[in-house]
Amino acid sequence: MSADTIHVSAPGKLFLLGEYAVLEGAPALLTAVDRRAHVHATVIDGPAWQISAPNLGIHDLVLGAHGKLPAELDPAMVAHLKVFDAVRALVQARATAALPALCLHIDTRDFAADGYKLGLGSSAAVAAALTAALTTAAGMTLARAELAAWAIAAHRAAQNGTGSGGDVAVSVYGGVISYVRDTPPVSLAWPERLIGRAVVTGQGASTPDLVGRVYAYGERDAAGFARDIQRLATLADSAAAAVDDTPAFLDLATQYFSALKTLDAHAAAGIVSPRHDTLAALAETHGGRFKSSGAGGGDVGLLFADRSIMRARLFEAFHEAGADVLDLGFAAPGLIHEPR
Fold first, then answer.
1. Which residues of the chain have pLDDT under 70?
2. How far apart are CA 13 and CA 24, in angstroms?
3. Homologous superfamily in CATH for domain 194-326
4. Cα angle at 286 between 281 and 291, to 5 degrees?
5. How many whole angstroms separate alpha carbon 140 and alpha carbon 93?
6. Which residues of 64-95 are buried (b: 16+ CB within 10 A; e: fewer)?
7. CA–CA separation, 286 vs 305, rounded Å?
8. Given 68, 150, 178, 226, which residue has the most CB atoms within 10 angstroms?
């Protein structure tokens, strides 16, 4: 690797509590997980840039001057590169010095299993790592809060203006955070008594599609939408305090999942699936709690248990039910500039 190569990595995420309500200003509780996106940026002779993202089927693609996407690029490839293009445009607009021509390599292999995405926030992790890599290439060192703000703005632009930014924030800060939209997060400690596991519940889901259906419900029934979001927000407000009280947190997770089901029933969005309901009932039978995570749909769900009273059969029962309990580390380190 060249001495002029910048290497940055950022973790994935899980929403623990606060999904959907965070879009309306309520706090969300998130954890970074030990699946990481890696970005290598090597300065090359310009003006053309190059980019590879093997997990997206992109190999040594030649870009235009200043990293602009070629006009003849097919729509599917343009869609794959939306996050890159949004980060590039934002950094170029805000940087205090011109970016050199770069050869970029983006590795997100940690975020997929058996050919589908796990819903651990790969695009948010890439946005965070790319923003750090490109600002470094421009000779800038941003404070963590400013770096997060830039990455959130770029990621939101790539998602057509949607997204709370919590997934990007936890990719930058790491650990466990309480996050209110567009404000610096508050770092929290993971409680020793609380066991948390991610569970694969089906094929990956599209966050913008699910959020779009929820907001379409808001347009159809503004009063009903407001009631459902307020129910979620009231519960989310107590999430940070409940982290220090494992029984209270488990009860809160159950209540939040129930409130999400109410929102989903009214929005017909597909947040909660029959598979989610089956796993929630199975968890309760064996002393645990299960809820959807993030936008929901087919992405990962969450299994919680109290370490001091957990029944030995809990994980075994999930395995027998065909649920893949992932070996994920929670409260993982945030964005890291790796040694050159």
1. 1-3, 115-116, 202-205, 298, 340
2. 20
3. GHMP kinase, C-terminal domain (3.30.70.890)
4. 45
5. 13
6. eeebebeeeeeeeeeebbbbbbbbbbbbeeeb
7. 9
8. 150
H-assigned helices in 178-221:
207-220
**Measured distance CA(71)–CA(122) in Å, rounded:** 26
Instruction: Please give the model's pTM, rounded to 2 decimal places.
Output: 0.93
pLDDT computed for residue 340 by the predictor: 65
What is the spatial distance between Cα 307 and Cα 195, in angstroms, rounded to a whole number?
Answer: 6
Residue 257 and residue 185 in contact, taking contact as beta carbons nearer than 8 Å: no
Half-sphere exposure of residue 60: CA atoms within 13 angstroms, side-chain side: 0
Reading the block at residue 12, the tokens are 């994935």
CB-based contact 263:232 (threshold 8 Å)? yes
DSSP 150-175: HHHHHHHHHTTT---SHHHHHHHHBS
Fold of 5-188: Ribosomal Protein S5; domain 2 (3.30.230)
Helix H or strand E encompassing 138: none
* The Cα angle at residue 91 between residues 75 and 31, in degrees rounded to 5: 85
Query: Which tokens hold the place of 191?
Result: 């409680």
Domain regions of the chain by residue span: 5-188, 194-326
